[in-house]
Amino acid sequence: MDLFDPPRDPAAETDALRAKALAIHDRLCHAYGCPVPFFSDKDPLSELVSALLSHRTKNADSARAYHRLRERFPTWEEVRDAPTAEVEDALAPCTWPEQKAPRVQAVLRAITDAPETDGLGLDALADWPADRARRWLQAFKGVGPKTSAAVLLFSRLRIPALPVDSHHHRVAQRLGLIPKSLAVGPSHDALAALIPADWDAQQVYDHHEALMLHGQKCCFWRRPDCPRCPVVDLCVWPGKEDRLRGGTRSGD
How many domains does the chain have? Predict the structure, then answer.
């Protein structure tokens, strides 16, 4: 820091970031039509399994794998107790079914044996503080911050918890809400700290969906469409000026 630079005020910087996050939220919600209808009404255990299948898999493929699994094994107890090879076969449409089949079964067994649950189910999480529920879920192998948040928010529990997918993460970095060096995992806490603590599940869902949709429809990884971006004036991405001039810079 230069000798004559004013001292940094971390509290003021945080307040400014929160104000920026709300401005981004308002503009993107206007652009993408909030409130966004929830895409899922699964019970929390079903949402957990669905999320585990979605890792590194296209949505259409993980959905096919999930439906094949439910058709072959109508209850989660049957999935838990089935020969792993049969579960793996049902999960063939998703990536790495040979890894996901034993992982899903291990999680189902762990939930069954957990003293906090009454058999195989996660409805009891409705009465837990969100932070406690997320820590408990993340103790299971394969369950990270995004999955734990998705279980609480996307399922019929509708508990405010902010998931961050790759699109959401990229948009947040380009808009300067988080440092470029911050990975997806730790970005969950950083981005959640920028939204109001009293937001309900719909508001948190809208925030996630708006940033995710912006990444899918405008702020592409390659050749983002900066000229039609509704938050381009708030963007700190170095390539935006070239894109606004009609250049071809494609990546960060």
Answer: 2
For residues 219 and 174, is the Cβ–Cβ distance under 8 A? yes
Q: What is the mean pLDDT of the chain?
A: 93
Question: What's the pLDDT tens digit per position in 3-25?
Answer: 445 557 878 888 999 999 999 99
Cβ neighbours around 66 below 10 Å, total: 22
Of 94, 122, 154, the domain-final residue: 154
Q: Which two tokens stand for residue 115?
A: 């003293």
Same domain, 198 and 239: yes
Please indicate, yes or no, if residue 250 is contained in any of the structural domains. Answer: no
Tell me the CA distances in angstroms from 109 to 73, 78, 240, one per residue in order.
16, 11, 49
Who's near 106: CB < 8 A, 6+ residues apart? 140, 141
Q: Which amino acid type is present at position 220?
A: F
Final residue in a domain of this structure, among 154, 174, 203:
154
- 57 shares its domain with 142: yes
Q: Are 234 and 23 in contact (CB under 8 A)?
A: yes
Residue segments in the chain with a per-residue pLDDT below the cut of 50: 1-4, 250
Query: Tell me, what's the pLDDT at 18?
Result: 96
Count of CB atoms within 10 A of residue 109's CB?
A: 13
Residue 251 belongs to a domain: no
